[in-house]
Design brief:
The chain has about 80 residues and is mostly beta strands. Helices cover about 10% and strands about 20% of the residues. Bound molecules: zinc ion (ZN). Zinc ion binds next to loops.
Length: about 80
Amino acid sequence: MVTYRKYLCPVCKQKTGVKILYGMPSHEAFELESQGLLALGGCCIDINDPERKCLHCGHEWQIKHKPPKFDLKLAPQYLQTKG
Ligand SMILES: [Zn+2]
């Protein structure tokens, strides 16, 4: 069970940051977005893309630096944006 908690925005200090979902959104994902519980980031992802978005000020940020190892076997679809 995935929970959709809010995160503290580093810019405006409001707890209005939500997870950015990448990939093809499901119907549930659109429902969550309409409720302000999720942000949709598009079908493709780059390792430098942000993982959180503030719905108050629009700021987007990463929760961690580059992953220590980008697993291409587990996420081959993410290769689309990589030159
Ligand atoms: Zn903010």
